[in-house]
Write a structure and sequence with these properties.
- The chain is mostly helical and 252 residues long.
- It has 2 domains: 85 residues, Arc Repressor Mutant, subunit A; 133 residues, Four Helix Bundle (Hemerythrin (Met), subunit A), CATH 1.20.120.530.
- The chain is 65% helix and 2% strand.
- It contains 10 helices and 2 strands.
- Strands 1-2 form a two-stranded antiparallel sheet.
- β1 and β2 form a beta hairpin.
- α1 packs across α10, α5 packs antiparallel against α8 and α6 runs antiparallel to α7.
Length: 252
């Protein structure tokens, strides 16, 4: 019988997960720009954790492709090339076609209501910053992946979707939230009808359109202090207001 993890190990793992969520959100919302340095000591100070915990969090984000670990333990927000960005979108299209194929005609009324509620939140965010709209749009796709109850699909869709978010801060026109919202609503309608062919076509067109709207030319970097950038994200961690996506149900 395998030994249960100690409470100390579990606590450390929880801290790593919380910091990952906060940093991931800061990257997705473009508060942390590609190439921004992420010193372990500064992260530890901001989040009130040890450098070891900060190092583990950076390692996890590096595995997701959001952070690059360079020599001398220097971590920076990843800077994908234009071709890497295009490849990420191509892979994402195929993965998410598989997601909606699995979900077509199989969603419960509660799940459809949850998807519609999420798109309503996207709609309310219109007129705000592009970064928040982009994050909410990305979380819609990750929510779909969670509804498959497939850990593999959740993992790979999440990682590729986050990488695509990262590219939006490098190669992007202003985010078209209205287009994204309308396309998300059309996808939900096709899923509810169980039209597998239609929903796969809609997802392909939607993500291809996102890529075409996004992959244009590098945008200039702003240059800000790391501790100031992370202040609101650290505050959310300490007040436990970071939104968590639903857990994957175990298959019997």
């Amino acid at each position: 019988m395998a030994a249960r993890p100690s409470s100390k190990t579990s606590e450390s793992s929880d801290k790593v997960s919380v910091i990952c969520r906060a940093l991931r959100r800061a990257i997705i919302e473009q508060a942390l720009e590609p190439g921004a340095k992420l010193p372990e000591d500064a992260l530890g100070e901001r989040f009130g954790v040890s450098r070891t915990i900060a190092r583990h969090a950076l390692g996890q984000l590096a595995a997701e492709g959001l952070v690059e670990l360079r020599r001398n333990r220097i971590a920076v927000v990843a800077t994908p090339s234009w071709q890497e960005a295009r490849d990420a979108f191509d892979i994402r299209i195929e993965l998410e076609r598989l997601v909606v194929r699995q979900l077509a005609g199989k969603l419960t009324k509660a799940q459809i209501a949850e998807l519609n509620a999420h798109v309503d939140a996207e709609d309310r965010a219109r007129g705000g910053t592009d970064a928040v709209s982009i994050r909410l749009a990305t979380e819609f796709h990750i929510l779909l992946a969670h509804m498959t109850n497939s850990p593999i699909l959740v993992r790979y869709v999440s990682e590729v979707a986050y990488r695509c978010c990262l590219t939006l801060s490098l190669y992007s026109r202003p985010h078209s939230s209205e287009c994204a919202i309308n396309e998300h609503r059309a996808i939900i309608a096709a899923l509810a009808k169980g039209d597998e062919t239609k929903v796969m076509e809609l997802m392909h067109h939607h993500l291809d359109s996102v890529a075409n709207r996004a992959l244009v030319a590098p945008t200039p970097q702003r240059g800000r202090d790391l501790l100031d950038i992370l202040a609101p994200y650290a505050d959310e961690v300490t007040s436990d207001r970071v939104v968590k996506l639903p857990k994957i149900a175990r298959r019997g």
